[in-house]
Specification:
317 residues; alpha+beta; six-stranded antiparallel beta sheet; four-stranded antiparallel beta sheet; 10 strands; 19% strand
Length: 317
């Protein structure tokens, strides 16, 4: 643990100048508290001037890089904290809660997120014959890794590219390949390899997750999920938990409750209707499980969210 802390501190010191120059350029594209899509379709920018309460999302495959500040992401029972010395890699669709834990007016939280296309990762692996990791135990679908100067500079070129929109159609794909290559080379590259390559256990669990995301309101039959993954029920359960830190039922429950919260907050649906639309037959069970996840009953939670959190901050951040 001490060695890991020293490595992180050394990396943060070695890349401080790069991140400072990137932050200055980043500031030209954002202001205030903002979640900003860019002309590069898969790149988003995030700026916060204060810390935030935990908000729930479903993270799709992406890599997030922080220039200033720090953030905490909770997946099931696991907590990931990352800052300027580390990137956060999400290799598979995962329901999480996250909050900014270091930000101020003088030194705002600044982050960049690149959405990852698993098909492009698979094609890169095949085109350049990138070998599978020597040891490929099934692993979590989320992890942190060192934000090296090479990875930072690739993201820096994306900021440069925003100033030349005519070059984006050609150059953005080249820079994305570079980012994917550095991720595959990193200590977390095995996660991406496992998820991207057809036939791997992780890839088969991805099929189950894809089905759950589309059919979260339907009754869950574990036998059907196991058949979908071409695994025994016990093997599917084991591998699903290894990747997501949740059982399929817990995963479905988080998807249901997050969608119910969105329906109430964004579409102004009442709690009873939201519960029915996401698959709950019992309003009391819905209220209990909602309070367990979000800390208070549905309508009280929604009222507090509307009063305290601008809508534009209820995004990935």
């Amino acid at each position: 643990m001490i060695d890991a802390t020293r490595t992180r501190e050394r990396l943060q010191w070695e890349t401080a100048d790069i991140r400072a120059e990137m932050a200055a350029q980043f500031a030209q594209w954002t202001s205030g508290d903002e979640s900003k899509a860019t002309d590069i379709p898969w790149l988003s920018l995030y700026r916060r001037t204060k810390t935030s309460a935990p908000v729930c999302y479903v993270y799709e495959p992406n890599v997030a890089l922080i220039l200033q500040g720090s953030k905490q992401v909770r997946m099931g029972d696991e907590v990931f904290v990352y800052d300027g010395s580390t990137f956060l890699l999400t290799a598979i669709d995962l329901p999480v809660s996250s909050c900014v834990i270091e930000a101020s007016e003088d030194t705002p939280y600044m982050a960049m997120r690149a959405t990852l296309d698993l098909a492009k990762i698979r094609q890169l692996i095949l085109d350049y014959e990138i070998p599978a990791p020597k040891i490929t135990p099934i692993s979590r679908g989320m992890a942190t890794g060192p934000a090296t100067s090479e990875l930072l500079c690739a993201f820096w070129r994306l900021l440069d590219l925003l100033e030349a929109p005519q070059d984006i159609p050609v150059m953005s794909d080249l820079i994305l390949k570079e980012i994917l290559y550095y991720l595959l080379k990193s200590e977390q590259g095995g996660r991406l390899w496992q998820i991207a390559m057809t036939g791997s256990q992780s890839n088969r669990i991805q099929k189950v997750i894809n089905w759950l995301r589309k059919h979260y309101a339907e009754a869950l039959r574990v036998d059907d999920l196991a058949q979908m993954a071409a695994m025994s029920v016990s093997s599917m359960h084991h591998h699903f938990r290894e990747i997501t830190s949740m059982s399929p039922l817990q995963f479905q429950k988080q998807l249901r409750l997050q969608e119910a919260r969105r329906l109430m907050l964004v579409e102004d649906v009442d709690a009873g209707m939201a519960a029915l639309r996401v698959g709950y037959e019992s309003a009391s069970q819905f209220s209990r499980e909602y309070a367990r996840l979000f800390g208070q009953p549905p309508m009280r939670d929604i009222k507090q969210l509307r009063a305290s959190t601008p809508a534009k901050q209820l995004e990935f951040a």
